[in-house]
Design goal:
The protein is built from 3 helices and 11 strands. It is an alpha+beta fold and 201 residues long.
């Protein structure tokens, strides 16, 4: 009787292992069967976004979050198909920003989510007009929307190796058109943050 029980249990375990192996084998076959399209052969779609024009004071007021932080690794591109044509949907690369200094927003946050418009899927490469990809591992001063995207492509300021930022004209001025900084020279990021804080008081 005991021998029969053990034989049944062994047979059941063997059957379960066989089923599991078949499932794993099927998944591998599906993945291997999916053609890999080289980047140059993928459909390229450029999103033309009607960006709102901000100055330093209006960007500071409009952004729910302003953070100095380091960009973590980007995850897999998230693709939202809003229309029949997959090139017409919104495409994002998700990442985390490791907080160095929270200028506006939750002062206790250690990291905040970031979504960058554009990215690459199995068949489509999506880029956004007037933007460059954010670099992993680099430090940025970010003016973020509620969704976690950059409020404007010019509100994502790369901090260079010397701790300097180089904002475009509008982000060097207030809304009256008065320059707050030299029109061309790089600005120490701490000086720039100090100017932002003046609009938060």
């Amino acid at each position: 009787m005991e021998t029969r029980k053990k034989t049944k249990q062994t047979a059941l375990i063997g059957l379960n292992l066989l089923l599991l192996s078949l499932i794993i084998f099927s998944i591998c076959l599906i993945r291997l069967g999916r053609p890999v399209i080289p980047v140059e052969e993928k459909r390229h779609h450029m999103l033309a976004v009607d960006w709102v024009s901000y100055h330093l004071d209006t960007a500071t007021e409009a952004a729910p979050m302003i953070v100095l932080g380091t960009i973590g690794p980007f995850g897999k591109t998230i693709f939202y198909e809003d229309f029949d044509d997959p090139g017409d949907g919104d495409c994002y690369r998700p990442a985390k920003i490791r907080v160095i200094q929270m200028i506006k927003g939750n002062p206790y946050a250690k990291a905040v989510p970031y979504l960058e418009w554009g990215g690459e899927t199995d068949s489509v490469v999506v880029t956004v007009m007037y933007t460059k990809p954010t670099l992993e591992g680099r430090t940025y001063l970010m003016f973020l929307s509620r969704r976690g995207t950059s409020l404007t492509p010019f509100g994502r300021l790369l901090v260079d190796e010397n701790g300097m930022v180089s904002p475009i004209d509008n982000m060097r001025m207030d809304s009256s058109g008065a320059y707050l900084f030299d029109p061309e020279a790089p600005i120490p990021v701490e000086d720039y943050i100090a100017a932002v804080r003046q609009y938060l008081d």
